[in-house]
Specification:
Layout: H1 15-36, H2 41-53, E1 56-57, H3 58-65, H4 69-81, E2 85-89, E3 97-101, H5 103-123, H6 129-149
Helix pairs in contact: 1-5, 2-5
């Protein structure tokens, strides 16, 4: 039986595939750009989440960064060693530990942020502000649908 020479290109409209490829390409290019700044993508994600949400439990950082717990623990330990983050025991429950950025961590974020922002601008060039807002709205709705399905 001969090999079929022409596919039907069904993946061009399969949204999970398109999201995966787009996300992967965005992450690969951001990784390259951040590496030039001396930061890896995983550290950036933790810094960005802490900057966006403030003090968080480790489990919540895991959820928001979509990374594995051992990786988050290792990164937080490194950030803490470098004075960029700090762990804080909850006053209500000593078993609960929060992680937050220090002043130095805020500065580190601000140094890296322009690289990430330029990356986003390049990826979204040619889109109007309205289209970008709509895209973000659609992505949030997809996330909500996925979370509701769990």
């Amino acid at each position: 039986m001969p090999i079929r020479g022409h596919g039907d290109k069904w993946l061009r409209t399969f949204v999970p595939y398109l999201l995966y490829r787009t996300s992967n390409q965005l992450n690969q290019r951001l990784h390259t750009r951040l590496r030039k700044s001396g930061v890896n993508l995983a550290r950036w994600r933790v810094l960005a989440v802490l900057r966006a949400y403030g003090k968080l439990k480790l489990g919540r950082i895991v959820e928001l960064t979509v990374m594995e717990q051992p990786s988050i623990s290792r990164i937080v330990t490194q950030l803490e060693r470098e004075g960029l983050a700090r762990r804080e025991v909850s006053t209500e429950d000593s078993r609960v530990v929060y992680v937050g950025l220090t002043t130095a961590g805020e500065r580190a974020f601000k140094e890296i942020y322009p690289t990430a922002r330029k990356h986003e601008e390049r990826a979204l060039s040619g889109f109007s502000k309205q289209e970008i807002n709509k895209l973000a709205e659609y992505l949030r709705r997809i996330q909500a649908n996925i979370e509701a399905d769990e």
